[in-house]
Fold these 2 entries.
Entry 1:
Amino acid sequence: MADDIYRHKILILDFGSQYTQLIARRVRENQVYCEIHPFNLSFEKIQAFAPEGIILSGGPSSIYDKEAPFADKRVLDMGIPILGICYGMQYVTHALGGVVAKAIDREYGNASITILDDSDLFHGFDKSIEETVWMSHGDRINHIPEGFSVIAKSKNSPVAAMADSRKRIFGVQFHPEVAHTPNGHQILKNYLFRICGCEPSWTMASFAKQTIKELREKLGNDRVICGLSGGVDSSVVAVLLNEAIGDRLSCIFVDNGLLRKGESRQVMETFADHYRMDVHLVDASDIFLKKLEGVTDPEKKRKIIGHEFISVFEKKARELGKARYLAQGTLYPDVIESVSFKGPSATIKSHHNVGGLPEKMNLELVEPLRELFKDEVRQVGVELGLPRELVMRQPFPGPGLSVRILGEITHERLEILRAADYILIEEIRKADLYEKVWQSFAVLLPVKTVGVMGDERTYENVIAVRVVDSLDAMTADWSKIPYDVMSSISNRIINNVRGVNRVVYDISSKPPSTIEWE
Ligand code: XMP
């Protein structure tokens, strides 16, 4: 790692809070690099990381649980500023000899705190005004450790925040990282800049520049293969590599016959024509559709597509000749997931990627986006001049339209879904909702319903419209888009797509439903 953009960094020790990633995103929004590690990261590794500050996250445990997570206590003696949030604060209290006890009432939701002291953490806050914060805790601090003072209180938390200003250890019972704490960003800013003395150097322009330089050094004269999908991540990887090594990069774009209308043309126009990259389009639609004939089971569809993808990709890669590396768009949330102390979450749907390929072909992985969150990847895309339409693209599943056609996949059904989805996206864009919602798409149902057109009775297909709001796809809510938008979507689909006589709107949230229908 070169040292400019990583010069000042924050270490976040994760005690299992659902908000830990949010803390990291907030820190990075302030242009300070940070990493999340499990709470039990070894002291040696913490020293080697050499952070400017350490944030101890919240977590679901009580400090008195048998299995309560404890960090290495020496962290508190390093002279590095500490910010404990919720459980993190309780851990600090417990470790330094204070007393944590069960609160009489669990405090959950908005609360008002009164700031009592001019600590650096609340610099710039008006003490005469109560601050709204977001609380979510069962335990509370009854006695602060020696050397600390109470710097804020709330009705249910006599210690809503505490500080040892000499040692620069701070604790807040509430969550400054969530949007429900309106001035939480100022508290985090105070911590990062006033208390830790960080300088804002983590920008996506400098990330792009530095990464291109590092890739050039690392990859030398070796060849790299990159799978392009038309999605944001693989596009940004490809353009970064193109900048770094130019024609030593070969991209493979597999058309599996399950793409949306105009998608493969768009990808070729962007990368082959505009960027003049070495892109190989493999039209494998016949092979995929043949293998999917008669298949209706969602998991079977995914397995077939995953398997076929690897086989097509591998064949093409071998044809292209000797490469040493395979580039992948792994993002930071995937990295955290695999090191998180909770362990990787249960696989609900088998996701399709190039799993197994690097070993089989003896390729080394290059993952230039490993340190980035999705919004940062988009920003890098902007810096590299990718078209906004591509950079702001909604997620699209690897198995493509196959998981949006319930029942059997046929050419005819694909055409119906493509036409309906195209109209839907046009209407969503027209209403300026495309970048506001998480995903919007059409699903073709395996039922037919009766309708009437003119004097004719019809018996045709149903399209379900799915539009969801979400932050990370882990949870999602159906989007309350205006009725007139729903109305134009429905009218245009029914009037223009042959074979559809009914449109319904999906009003299920995740959980218990999922975003995709299969
Ligand atoms: P679900 O349906 O599980 O989807 O709520 C969560 C997010 O993942 C996307 N998704 C997939 N992406 N391969 C992918 O690359 C898949 O098999 C797959 N299945 C779902 C989905 O579009 C949503 O954004």
Entry 2:
Amino acid sequence: MKSVIVYNYLMFLSQPHRRYNPLINEWVLVSPQRTKRPWQGKYEKIQKEKKLIYDPSCYMCPGNIRANREKNPRYKNTFVFRNDFPPIVDTGQKESIINNSGILQAAAIKGECRVVCFSPRHDLTLSEMTDDQIQDVILTWISQIEEFKHKYNWVQIFENKGELMGCSNPHPHCQIWASNFIPNEVSKEDIQQKKYFEKNDSVLLVDYVKKELDKKERVVTENYSWIVVVPFWAIWPYETLLLPKTNRSQFTLISAEEKRELAEITKNLLLSYDRLFNISMPYSMGWHFAPFNVKNNGYWQLHAHYYPPLLRSATVKKFMVGYEMLAQPQRDITPEQAASELRKYIKS
Ligand code: H2U
Ligand code: ZN
């Protein structure tokens, strides 16, 4: 029996196989043997020019004017403003389906969009901020959720970092989109976590963390209350999942100590990303937790996804094309290899 397990494990490291993502009920193809293939495709340009502390043309810097002619205050920590080009607005329409003829459906939406500047400094990234400054960002996220949770069903907090991710401005910031509807990714996670809880009477991601703590093959870093793993089912090469070790269904439920430890682990993770390819790592990240209209939401586990787009170096991007668009996601390096690489750059 033991030899079968060892054989399977080796197969996992070297042979093509597929893995199941229980959080969204989808599969990912893993092809570790492909890591040796030559790359003759596109190399991205690395921008390493020195950034200004204050940029007079930046619409996020303190004291500057935004597109709607409003002047930013001379803020000292974080600064939240209404997105001047919001993708979701309150149209005042009823929430009912506008066209419910079966195949062609559309529904009215309601919501609000904001931008959060992480720091008055134009040149910093989250990884370069102090633990206390990162904690201010966490407190801002939580107070935004507190404000929106009575009005809407969902608040998506996300950061697009770097030009490679389509970020329009290097000033450190994230976005907040609140909506009356539950977006697809959150809805899939809701269904899956609920199903798991009904079947096992325990929380999917809490059980998952226990498994990861057992062997630690995919653990990147941890502290007393948080853990970062390259999930067993990761799609992006260096994708990570950051989550509490015990059950927290909502961001608003974490303790003062957990906030402090979250700042610390976030900094460690982001520094290891920056050191991996010796650049300020681009990524998209965002938070998931129980939507506000879910009653008995104990099956939900708070977590953040980090999705860096790079593959094997600072200049080679992973493209989600071809098979990914038409069949299912595929990755080359294994999540275990990615975790082991990132671990090397975690400060001890
Ligand atoms: P990125 O995170 O993708 O760079 O987007 C920044 C947001 O800032 C974007 O959604 C908003 C854009 O609508 N913005 C303003 O709200 N005011 C401005 O003056 C410029 C950009
Ligand atoms: Zn700026």
